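INFO  loader      accepted 1 record
INFO  loader      residues=254
INFO  predictor   begin
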Amino acid sequence: MSNDMSAVTPLERALHDLRLTEAQFAAMDGDRLRQHWRAMIRASHPDLPENRGRTWDAGAINAAYDALRQDLAARRPASVRGVDQDNVWTRENIWRFDRASIAPPWQPDKQAKNHKIVAETYRDVNFFKKRMWELSDRSEDVYHIAAFGQTAFEGRTSVYGSATVFDEMARAMLIWNANGSRIDLTRAVMVSPAHESGALYLIYADGKFLDKNPIPLPYDARAGMPAKDRNLRVKLPVVLDRLQDMLGRRAAAG
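INFO  predictor   done
INFO  writer      dumping tokens
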């Protein structure tokens, strides 16, 4: 691989970020790739003594994993990838689906009763979910998204997605959570990947999209969801105030 990272392909960049050679990746299946990605996340965590002072770029590691996972999926036979869903879920079914014994492929909540898309806007939660699924190349990874208002957690939903669409996840959540009101009343948007136990990332804060460098937040997974973690509810406004001040000073410094 070239040392000039501006000249490499997206696949080569992903291999570089996950410290894999082409030969190693070629020998992997989805399970082995997932194990390697999880090991990378753990090994590079800033809480470890050997990593003190280093920048923890979880966003790059997650984006690389998503890119390689999608490359693996593209190599599988169509019947394994599940593209035969196209024959079952026609455009009319996907866009106008109301009630059925099974959920459409973009719906991670299998207990949901209503799958109908009323309007092509993020104010419609089913359009929100379908759009994230499409933008992430029909990902099968579930992400739980939560919005924080001025003093408390507000809307939350789950989508199929990937780290490559964190910016659009944040934008969609801002619109859906506002529900016709002012978007700027939502201070923060966080995501919790279902495949990454106990992880919570800040991807938007006070007008700033942080999708390129998501900020890990301390979160007690035993609470079940961020909104039920009392310590997080109390500390989050302070964290947001400090972040806003730091970003403001950085912008002023030019």
